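Question (not urgent): is this output format expected?
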Amino acid sequence: MAERINTPFTNEHFADWCLKMAEAKSPYWYGTCVYKATNSVLSSKTNQYPSHYGSSRTSRYKQDIANKQVVADCIGGCKGYAWSNGGQGVLEAIGTDKTFTRKYGSNGCPDKSASGMFSYAKSKGMDWGSIDTLPEIPGLALFKEGHAGYYVGNGYAVEWKGFNYGCVKTAVKGRGWLNWYKLPFIDYGDADTGTHAPDVVENITLGCRLLKNGSTGTDVKALQELLNQVGASLTADGIFGSKTEAAVKAFQKKAGIKQDGKYGDQSHAALMAAIAEKDAPLQTDPAPADPVRGEPTSDDKKVVITCDNGTVNIRVGNDTKYARITAAEDGTVLPYVATAENGWHAVTVGDRVGWVSGKYSKVE
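Got this back:
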């Protein structure tokens, strides 16, 4: 234990680092990932997230800069730990003029939202479970919709709780946590959770494959959320179980198609049509309304869906007036085609091209 707690990227070291960040009262800045608080960071994040950086908060942010603090948001805590090579130099930089080295996306840690990181961990086959099965393993990540924390043992967690709290140590009980999971870039040694995740296929767009009892993934979660819009009452957990199968059969019966409980092309077309009926009349002309910029298509570019909650629609044209092709979860990665003048991105979905709003996606 003593050796591991001093070794970066072990779960013991990560948990100890989180505790020390709480002791240092690291402030919460939305959209940051263990950054040194500076005026340039404040300006950048104010432009990026104006609703989180209102004038009423400016004086507090300025005080954090004066205090030479290191800042993060909830999921930014673990991302910043990884990107700073296991928190190297971070604690020493708090309250001093020292800086530290960080590299975006390094050490196997992708840039994901709180919900996206949970999905990513499952896609990598990491152990996870419901919060009532939380094992006594420091360094596990905790999840509830839109928020992340980190278990430090004995019933306590560290979390960048919000603007008014910063990084704090809190009791796990009563905080509404739903799940625990192992982070893919942390070494948990021989720690056995006693629970092992099933094979999970993540970042699959709904409509690209046949779904049936036993399927798991972001497309299953998207299916569950859309079925709820047409009368079902499912927990959108991304696991196709008996309740989801029953909901698919009920929808198939209502749609007048074969009631086999499997979600294939015919069921997908029927569900998209049913969802569309809830909207204003839609155009079906797939031609985009605006010309695309003169950027060449690149096989190396991807579009990442960035909607913190729920799903975002992929449409046949670059405006909400166009019909849906499907819906995609936060963290879904799609091949990039082009970008329209209005900021919508063209992506490849299966064997066709669709469009997603730039408000809920980014090109990488």
